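Per reviewer request, we include the raw input and output of the structure prediction for the construct analysed in the revised manuscript.
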Amino acid sequence: MIKLTRLNSQEFTLNAIYIEQIQSFPDTTITLTNGKRLVVSEEEDEVIRRATEFYRNAGLLAAVQNLGGSMKGD
């Protein structure tokens, strides 16, 4: 789980497993695997760093990389 902040300064926790895509429009927009979009105040690189740390701590980073995926910053 990663802690993020909505544009209205409300904090929430997101299960990073459900992140499909992260983009800057210029606001950072996270698209989940179910198609829902979340706009957060954190920069795109910070969301990627937190998601990567989550995967590493959960022991999933190597599995993602072995499947041919990559996470920016690694």
